[in-house]
Amino acid sequence: MILDYKGISVFYSDEGNGIPVVLLHGFLENTVMWKNIIPHLSKNNRVVAIDLLGHGQTGCLGYIHTMEDMAEVVNTVLDNLKIEKAILIGHSMGGYVALAMAEKFPEKFLGLCLANSTSQSDSNERKINRDRAIKAVKQNYKAFVSMAVTNLFAENNREKLKSDIEIVKQEALKTPLQGIIAALEGMKIRKNREHVLKNAQFKKLFIIGLKDTVIQPDIIRKEAETTDSQYIEFDGGHMSYIENEKLFLQNIVHFIELI
């Protein structure tokens, strides 16, 4: 489905009935990442998946897409669908967006799952790496996407998941240059939102990849404990929904059932 938002098209899907579950993809991803998960969740829930700004079939709004900008898009889609409360599940950047939304609209949350994500802001080193990534993608778009996607997977999974990684790369290559740069700029300047989790009245779950090189597992574990959030650890990298597909789905379903 397509929603007109400030002159651009925002794509989303809406399937099933029951308590709403909103799925937010990560950087270089789109709603396709949820293709194996939506059929299971939509058996008992209303499942909405949204292409965030500059990703998938959703257009770009400018040269910086802040997490707040993306959260406003998500909120507009939910308002359009007359969804007042929902469980949000965000993978990586999708988690940053969900947290930005939770800061502004906490009353809309029944629960929040941060999959391979964090409420922390970028470290100085991470900000430098974002700037390097922007230069790299401008110089060689395809090489950047290929390397960026490969590095999301644990090294020991790269050969056995070769075909899955190729599919992720093909979807990532659909992300326009402007969308990539705008997201990198937006993630670079995002705020620390640990206070949002500490003050939350809803259930919270972290999914951690023990071999995640993007977000250090020790940092997320400490964050979960500090914010009184549940957490589950998988023996994989940043792409838990592929590297630990069955366990990922089982734990998501269990989290939804608890709510």
TrEMBL record:
InterPro entries attached to this UniProt entry: AB_hydrolase_1, AB_hydrolase_fold, AB_hydrolase_sf
The UniProt record lists the keyword Hydrolase: yes
Domain of life: Bacteria
Signal peptide location: none
Keywords: Hydrolase
Keyword hit for Hydrolase: yes
MF terms in GO: hydrolase activity
Annotated ranges, domain AB hydrolase-1: 20-244
Protein name (record): Alpha/beta hydrolase
Protein species of origin: Hanstruepera neustonica
